[in-house]
Description:
six-stranded mixed β-sheet; Nuclear Transport Factor 2, Chain: A; alpha+beta
Amino acid sequence: xxxxxxxxxxxxxxxxxxxxLTEMVFPADETExxxxxxxxxxxxxxxxxxxxxxYSRAHMAAHLTDVRTMLAGGRVELxxxxxxxxxxxxxxxxxxxxATFESTVVARLAAxxxxxxxxxxxxxxxxxxxxxxx
Length: 134
């Protein structure tokens, strides 16, 4: 498992949720496995709550693979965002070929700049009524 260098950590620490989530859902290298992306962006003990369902990092890789498939070829649009030290909050739109989702995320960064935890409320705007994939 790789961990960011101190140079990478300072770069990550300056990034917004829009940037982090764009890299997570729409990686520059579309063949990069979800687990490798997560290694760069989230801590080993990462937890995310999405619409009340808690995902460990191990479960998040499978979830991220499903989300990438559903939103393939899309983009993230920042509606509004806030930052206070290591706390980030944003309301975003995820536009994909199959669906568009609105997501409100509050996250905490670890000292190395990776995301340690996140709470997300997401809802479909069009393309699907099934939020089970969220």
